[in-house]
Amino acid sequence: MKVKDVLTLAIRLEEEGERFYRELSEHFDGKIKETFLELADQERSHAEIFRKMSDQDFWDEVDSYLSGYAFYQVFPDTDEILKRKDLTLREVLEIAISVEKDSIILYYELKDGLVNSDEQKTVKRIIEQEKEHLRKLLALKHERS
């Protein structure tokens, strides 16, 4: 698997993340709605960054660990989640927290597979933003406990 393939997956993850947070925001008000919309906007921005990075043609192979991880790293099916009438805010936050953690792991591995230091710095900035997403979600979960 090439790094470019992982970047394609990262784009898909970020697009699904945007959709996930945007659709969730429609079911909440106030601070929770605001937070989900903010996260959706940042996920859209991350997808665009990965899209620009994937347009380059010099990607090397990545190790089997990353390629295996990448194939199993999938954003949850938003439609299935929202069909559940008994879904609590706590469960929604736990799903979002889990996805952010998995994204951080994937992006660390992606960063380590890049040879260009500018690209590594870009992915590192995205990792920091994903960590901030995680902090916000954990704070919301803590506030609602």
Give a verbal description of the structure:
With 145 residues, the protein is mainly alpha-helical. 79% of the residues lie in helices and 0% in strands. The chain is built from six helices and no strands. The protein has helices at 3-25, 30-54, 64-72, 78-83, 89-113, 117-143. The mean pLDDT is 82.
Measured by DSSP, the beta-strand proportion falls in under 5%
Main beta sheet, described? none
Number of E-type strands: 0
How large is the radius of gyration? 16 Å
- Which consecutive residue ranges, at least 5 long each, have pLDDT under 50? none
Q: What structural category arises from helix and sheet content?
A: mainly alpha
**How would the global form be characterised?**
elongated
| Element string (H = helix, E = strand) | HHHHHH
Kindly state the mean pLDDT as a whole number?
Answer: 82
Helix percent band: over 70%
Termini Cα gap: 42 Å
DSSP helical segment count: 6
Quickly describe the structure.
This protein has 145 residues and is mainly alpha-helical.
Topology readout:
Blueprint: H1 3-25, H2 30-54, H3 64-72, H4 78-83, H5 89-113, H6 117-143
Task: Supply the key terms.
mainly alpha
